[in-house]
Amino acid sequence: MSITKEKDLSQIVETAVNRHGTHGDALIPILLEINEEYGHIPASALQDVSGKLHAGENGTVVSEGQLFSLASFYHMLSTKQRGEHVVQFCESAPCHVQGGRELRQAIQEYLGLAAGETSPDGKWTLVTTSCIGLCGVGPVIIIDEELYGNVTPEQLPDIFARYE
Amino acid sequence: MSFYRSHILVSVDPECLQRGAHAVLDALSDELVNQGLISEVQVLETSRIGDPAKHGPDIIVYPEGAHYINLSPEDIPLLVEEHFLKGRVVEKFLLQEKNIVDEELGPPKPKEVRVILRNCGKIDPHNIEEYIAEDGYQALAIALTEMVPWDVIDEVLNSGLRGRGGAGFPAARKWQLCRNVDDSPKYLTCNADEGDPGAFMNRRVLESDPHSVIEGMIIGAYAIGASYGYIYCRAEYPIAVRNLNIAIQQAREFGFLGENIFGTGFSFDLEVRMGAGAFVCGEETALIASIEGKRGEPRPRPPFPAVSGVWGKPTNNNNVETYAVVPQIILNGASWYAGMGTETSKGTKTFAVAGDVVHTGLIEVPLGITLRELIFDVGGGIKDGKEFKAVQIGGPMGGCLTAEHLDYKIDYESLIAAGAMMGSGGIIIMDEDTCMVDIARYFMDFTQDESCGKCTPCRIGTRRILEILERICEGKGEPDDIEKLEHLCREVQKNSLCGLGQGAPNPVISTLKLFRHEYEAHIFDKRCPAKVCRSLIDFEINAEVCTGCTVCARNCPVEAIEGERRQVHTIDADTCIRCGICAQVCNFNAVEVKS
User: Fold this and answer.
1) pTM for this predicted structure
2) Which residues from chain B sit within 8 angstroms of residue A134, using beta carbons?
3) Across the interface, do B197 and A94 touch by the CB < 8 Å criterion?
């Protein structure tokens, strides 16, 4: 989920549409790929996808609005610009009862962010994630694509320092 | 199938990958080629084998069972030369502590019976031949060549298999309904959108034994007359998606998927569809909408998916575990399966056990096991010698059971009667230090966040319930809050469109029933009996134990602690933010929590 601004957005959209096709059931795979490659899905990308699907063979008519309704429905898709590093905090119950409650508080205080917020300098975005199934090593956080298990508040400065 | 004298299992669980398991894997393959050993030693990828946070990347070498840990590519030449060329175990990489093999899925614990998990960790999920060697795809051959579709349905019906997704509807009855609909094409979907917090049984089966699910789906498709299938897998499980795709490709190459399977004229193929993070997509009509590329919002039933599902065509939807067990039923017979379990709940069920119990992780037990056996025999009892308080079963739509339910049987009917439900199999065991109001608040936070927003009772009702619970936890509860909660819960339960909304109030209803006194303590006494809710507790320093070492004062983020060196320290309750750091850093356990 790292931001690769260098990559050309329209190139990303084109690759995604070519890979998944222009049928209606390709919409979510296309949006997932754009989100992963670009970090989020800007309005211009929605417009681009809409146009490309319409023009495709057996093309599908999907308005930007319909695409936005999809992108805003699914948690893993973001229509807002995200920070350089995205910290995902697992808010599921097993993590919660294994020290996740304290950890969440500590992360929010450390970054000065509430869940869903991005820091003013664009460095960090803090989001919550649903269970990722690694409950054996809870509490779990994910920074960009790296997983950290059995995290305690004391470890946070060391963990975050790796991204400074 | 080739034979090897040694097998190397390389853990490629997400944490090991992050720590460089891929580089180790590549280095191993390269070095085995260099040493001319590649035809004698097989390298396999497997799920977690140890504690990846401490030991990854790690490998296990069989037949010796040597567990080598913290490997880097530079270690590999020495390891290969010593172990495989010279036959000497390399002590310096060896895990010294024994007994840990697989934290998620260790050796079977007392009273465990493994049917669905039988191959997990034992076979290479990337090699279809290993699955075939464990009788894989034999059931498919029997079904397609010796049975007509109705025979398959009858066999599954007689086994008593009930849908493992949570509701427990008899699997074969669903199949009958779909078979009887006069429309084509028909579709088969597999619900692998395992979203219940703490439930990761399906992840493990998909990662470690994907062919069992695929084989079960092909047999199901044959029984129903379906020609195409979708496995809807949540995007949070990238390894499961990858292993499924590899397995599907291999099944196609072997002719188990595609046109004219086994020359019988039956054709079926399937693909994996990824979710994008929406819990509600585990509901079958929402899942179907999401497969079609729409918002995953449920719709009223009827029409049921058996009549109108994917693309408006008859569709049968079952859970991962339901499909995975079908080949075993065909192979071993309905009476074998029906021989396990209780009168109405047959067979085995996997559970993901989490929380304050000695052995957390995956287990598989015959239904009808008691809660006591599950916690104390299989789970090894409560951690740190604490008291058992409650178990939350059935996921966010489930309920709690307490010490008084310890001798209840775990089956579909008993759990419902006790105010909980089977759900998909997540079990969270809680000790005496757990605040039940906080747990109810937690689950409500989850469901109101995951409410898709389509119907009003769920969208607004869950939010209002959460607000009341939040204020109770903050010590701002009002005298009639309990009545308000009960009223709201009833309305949301009765009037919501789908299972998510109808089940959402369950954790509140269940904790209100069993732990009403905790709610009352929060509301009337402004006290949290478990000392968890931060607004209702105070940290105090025990003057008799405090040595005046100043550690707490130096670590306090808000300078709320005063005291001279070697003098008793005190905490200013007004400044204190109840972060608990002082209690964690105190070497003398002098910081006490009061409520």
Assistant:
1) 0.79
2) 14-15, 200
3) yes
